[in-house]
Amino acid sequence: MNQTPNFELVTKPSLALLVFRLRPDADVALTDPELNLLNQRLHTRLDGRSDVFLTPTMLHSEERDVYCLRFAIGSLRTTWEDVEKTWAAVVEEGKTVLTDRAAEV
């Protein structure tokens, strides 16, 4: 994931849980509300699929609110292939969200 453009870890990985968000590598800095909207759109797209189930969360602090997604990989039946396929779907939908955003701007 660290090598995937347009995504960042929001918290330190914990056992079998990754908390991440879509964050475009662009010259234009996006505000937290803009990033939150992008990630809500990403979750909506992923939620519409039958092959992926990720849960959203909002991390609150005094300074900001960060909408992000949780990727739990804790089942005994989960294979590395499952993880790769799920991440490929996240990347694919992330690209679509960014393409749609670029068309809006």
Question: Can you tag this structure with a few keywords?
Answer:
4-stranded antiparallel sheet, 2 helices, alpha+beta
Widest sheet: strand ordering: 1-2-4-3
SSE string: EEHEEH
The main sheet comes to: 4 strands, antiparallel
The helix content is: 25-40%
CATH topology: Aspartate Aminotransferase, domain 1
Count of discrete structural domains: 1
Q: Using DSSP, what is the number of strands?
A: 4
Return Rg in Å.
14 Å
Derived structural class: alpha+beta
* Average pLDDT for all residues: 90
Second-tier CATH architecture:
Alpha-Beta Complex
Compact overview of the structure:
The chain has 2 helices and 4 strands.
3D architecture notes:
There is one protein chain. The chain has 105 residues and is α+β, with helices and mostly antiparallel strands. It has a single domain, classed as Aspartate Aminotransferase, domain 1, CATH 3.90.1150.10. It has 2 helices and 4 strands. A 4-stranded antiparallel sheet has the order 1-2-4-3, with helices on one face. A hairpin with a 4-residue loop joins strand 3 and strand 4. It is globular. The mean pLDDT is 90.
